[in-house]
């Protein structure tokens, strides 16, 4: 037993693998530096240790989604560019400026507020400009790009670091929207003040040289999620979730397992229970679909995933017993496979991993 594992489950996070994945992405994107997107607590894995390790590896550009996320890691990143993707909420300009955090400005109102605060301070303030090229979520729509191109003085006081856009479908290289967005972005940038550009996300780094820019912004690929679905994963696995078997039950043919009895034994079966459930971010949608591994033997998840418990059929793994470890994510069961079985993606699996796990940081 590992001390401190009150749930009997451990989340191993390989910081060396994360740093290596960042280095791999740097090689994949030679046209400019590679940032680290550490939003949602570094995709659920711990923004503080991840930021510290990536900074030690040489990463000098970091993005979060919210100001509070950036404020939490600012002391770990001296001199690095730290930017907030979700933009500038009204009234937050003083907090951004005080912490040397750059907002990603996605509307004319945000530009106006940031520029006004710069004039109040009597010094330029760093910011990024987000141009919407097809996502239709955040960023300047075409009419606002037109307005800014006609009145570039709106940016007086803003020290533009990058102009960026966000790819809609980079994981699908055959989708024509990728080239359309690249061309729209190029046309928009040609009308705006000359500024370095940021285009590729995790999957965008693998779309080829035409999608290279002055700064790439990968997120999930850093943590081992495959940025090239349908092809071999070029990233190292960085996450392993393992849980100890709490109890083993011998179940006769016809015995039903868990809530609503959605799985019925067709043979004499050995059923192992582990203390991981949907409260821990192991989705209910994995019911009767997921599997774990024991000593390289795949053992299927059977029955309903409940709030705190899940059950696995270990009949064909005779060495498994109370106290044995099952790999729910890890060797033989990568995060993308777990996501596929749960009808979601690796991003959601990682970001939902709960607070009850003991987190073990490898290579800290």
How is the secondary structure organized here?
Blueprint: E1 9-14, H1 15-28, E2 36-37, H2 39-43, H3 47-57, E3 61-64, H4 67-73, E4 81-84, H5 93-99, E5 102-105, H6 108-121, E6 125-130, H7 142-150, E7 158-164, H8 177-191, E8 197-198, E9 239-251, E10 256-257, E11 263-264, E12 269-274, E13 291-294, E14 297-300, E15 310-313, E16 325-329, H9 335-341, H10 346-351, E17 358-362
Q: What does the model show?
A:
The protein is an alpha/beta fold. The chain folds into 2 domains: 15-223, Alanine racemase (TIM Barrel, Alpha-Beta Barrel); 239-333, Lyase, Ornithine Decarboxylase, Chain A, domain 1. Helix content is 26%, strand content 22%. The chain has 10 helices and 17 strands. It has helices at residues 15-28, 39-43, 47-57, 67-73, 93-99, 108-121, 142-150, 177-191, 335-341, 346-351, and strands at 9-14, 36-37, 61-64, 81-84, 102-105, 125-130, 158-164, 197-198, 239-251, 256-257, 263-264, 269-274, 291-294, 297-300, 310-313, 325-329, 358-362. The chain has a 7-stranded parallel β-sheet. Strands 1, 9, 12, 15, 16 and 17 form a 6-stranded mixed β-sheet that branches. Strands 10-11 form a two-stranded antiparallel sheet. α4 (67-73) links the parallel β3 (61-64) and β4. The two termini are 22 Å apart. The model is unreliable at 1-5 (pLDDT under 50).
Write a short abstract of this structure:
By secondary structure, this protein is of the alpha/beta class.
């Amino acid at each position: 037993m590992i001390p401190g594992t009150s749930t009997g489950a451990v989340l191993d996070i390989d910081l060396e693998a994360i740093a290596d994945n960042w280095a791999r992405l740097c090689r994949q994107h030679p046209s400019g530096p590679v940032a680290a997107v550490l939003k949602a607590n570094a995709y659920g894995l711990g923004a503080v240790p991840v930021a510290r390790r990536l900074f030690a590896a040489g990463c000098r550009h970091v993005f979060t989604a919210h100001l509070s996320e950036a404020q939490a890691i600012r002391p770990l990143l001296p001199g690095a560019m730290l930017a907030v993707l979700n933009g500038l909420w009204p009234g937050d300009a003083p907090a951004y400026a005080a912490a040397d955090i750059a907002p990603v400005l996605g509307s004319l109102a945000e530009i106006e507020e940031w520029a006004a605060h710069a004039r109040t301070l009597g010094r330029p303030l760093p910011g990024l400009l987000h141009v919407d090229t097809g996502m239709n979520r955040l960023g300047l729509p075409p009419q606002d790009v037109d307005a800014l191109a006609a009145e570039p003085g709106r940016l007086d006081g803003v020290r533009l670091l990058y102009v960026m856009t966000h790819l809609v479908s980079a994981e699908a290289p055959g989708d024509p929207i990728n080239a359309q967005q690249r061309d729209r972005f190029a046309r928009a940038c040609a009308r705006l003040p000359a500024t370095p550009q940021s285009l590729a996300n995790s999957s965008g780094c693998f779309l080829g040289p035409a999608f290279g820019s002055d700064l790439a912004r990968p997120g999930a690929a850093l943590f081992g999620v495959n940025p090239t679905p349908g092809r071999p994963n070029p990233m190292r696995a960085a996450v392993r979730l393992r849980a100890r078997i709490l109890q083993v039950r011998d179940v006769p043919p016809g015995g039903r397992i868990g809530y609503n009895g959605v799985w019925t034994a067709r043979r004499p079966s050995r059923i192992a229970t582990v203390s991981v459930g949907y409260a821990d971010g192991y989705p209910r949608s994995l019911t009767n679909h997921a599997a774990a591994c024991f000593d390289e033997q795949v053992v299927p998840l059977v029955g309903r995933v409940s709030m705190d418990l899940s059950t696995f059929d270990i009949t064909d793994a005779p060495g498994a017993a109370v106290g044995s470890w099952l790999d729910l994510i890890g060797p033989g069961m990568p995060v993308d496979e777990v996501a596929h079985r749960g009808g979601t993606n690796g991003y959601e699996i990682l970001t939902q991993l709960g607070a009850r796990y003991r987190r073990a940081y490898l290579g800290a």
